[in-house]
Amino acid sequence: MGEQEKLKIYDDQRNQIGVATRSDVHKLGFWHEAFHCWFVQNDKGIHYIYLQLRSKKKKDYPNLFDITAAGHLLADETVEDGVREIKEEIGIDVNFDDLIPLGELKYCVVKNEFIDKELANVFLYKNEEEFDDFTLQAEEVAGIVRVEFTKFSQLWFGERNEVEIFGFEINNDGKKVEIKAHVNRDQFVPHEVSFYKEIIQRIQEQIK
């Protein structure tokens, strides 16, 4: 796995135009497919959204909060195969049939020489697992936290400056350590605000 992974590439009209390595996809800015899964949980009447803390070792956006589980779809994979990302990254076995489809989301992030133009197949999973059930892929994910969904929404719609997160991270000795902190937008992967707003609205429809 890595920079030489082969991904399907698309033009602006979403027609497949070939296959390229992951490194070329990000260097040349080709549209490519991704799989995103957001976990939510209803705990005593309050909805929470789960976030992963990206590993400090990640080449892209290290040590920032991100989608619960996400990754690229390889050239020989279908959208259904994306569930492997959930198992690989956070150790939760999820059946594709248990996911709620939230549709496709096109977005682009450009940072220096890195151009990420993703066609994201977005899903929601209503989580009933406890924090102890998560097993993290150390080189990818450093922690899992949750935040009240309403407050997460207020953060991205500009109604508050920070939110309280609670969960755990894996320290340098490989031990689980509790995290409880206040974080602001700067501590999230820098998707456009419109990306977060769109996701929030689509999730809101499913948890009314």
Description:
- It is a single chain.
- Helix content is 18%, strand content 43%.
- The strands form 2 sheets. Strands 3, 4, 5, 6, 7, 8, 9, 10 and 11 form a 9-stranded mixed β-sheet that branches. Strands 1-2 form a two-stranded antiparallel ribbon.
- It has one domain (6-207): Nucleoside Triphosphate Pyrophosphohydrolase (Alpha-Beta Complex).
- The mean pLDDT is 95.
- A hairpin with a 5-residue loop joins strand 10 and strand 11.
- Helix 3 packs antiparallel against helix 4.
- The radius of gyration is 17 Å and the shape is globular.
- The chain is built from 4 helices and 11 strands; from the N terminus they run E-E-H-E-E-E-E-H-E-E-E-H-E-E-H.
- By secondary structure, it is an alpha+beta fold.
- The chain has helices at residues 22-28, 83-90, 149-156, 193-207; strands at residues 6-10, 16-21, 31-43, 46-54, 65-66, 69-72, 100-111, 114-126, 141-148, 162-170, 176-184.
